[in-house]
Amino acid sequence: KAGVTQTPRYLIKTRGQQVTLSCSPISGHRSVSWYQQTPGQGLQFLFEYFSETQRNKGNFPGRFSGRQFSNSRSEMNVSTLELGDSALYLCASSLLGGSRWNYSYSWPLHFGNGTRLTVT
Amino acid sequence: AQTVTQSQPEMSVQEAETVTLSCTYDTSESNYYLFWYKQPPSRQMILVIRQEAYKQQNATENRFSVNFQKAAKSFSLKISDSQLGDTAMYFCAFMCPQGGSEKLVFGKGTKLTVNP
User: Which residues are within 8 A (CB) of A54 and not within 5 positions of it... i.e. 6 or more apart?
Assistant: First the structure.
């Protein structure tokens, strides 16, 4: 079974531009979440989608947005890029998300290899 | 808000020896999950081990085990018989499902180097 696929792996953009990152979850997985990883702030939660609905959102400005399609694939968009947006963006998927949360149910979050975004 | 603290930015260990990575967290919740993730240079986050807060027994996965002290809010990772392939960043993470969310709160990470 293929893992979580993120495209592209590397991206270089200029300040003020916008960018779209893509994430294809593991087949059958319905939940997708996004994280930003920087040396200074570490790993920070961006947002989470389940069945095309945003379930949770982190503390990021409105320039950061996302969506999930009916096939569970997800995209995140960053508009008006700033130098500080340079980071590794990680996507993760899981089978059921929290819709059937059960403390005895064990699930793993599967992460992709990330997209390295550099803003110049 | 939940926070996760990893007080050791870097650690090193000799191959075949044992090393323990520290993690503390802060939460007012009683039911939650704790995780250790490994991130090698390939960048992919790999789940090493997880612990359910309601379980008193410490989780174990082969050479990896945890010491979960719920009252002290401590969750350390012990790696036995360290191997060169264990060299990576290790992140401690907390998750409390609320409203169905699976949001993870990560610590800043510990860079582990296993020396031959």
Answer: A47, A48, A66, A68
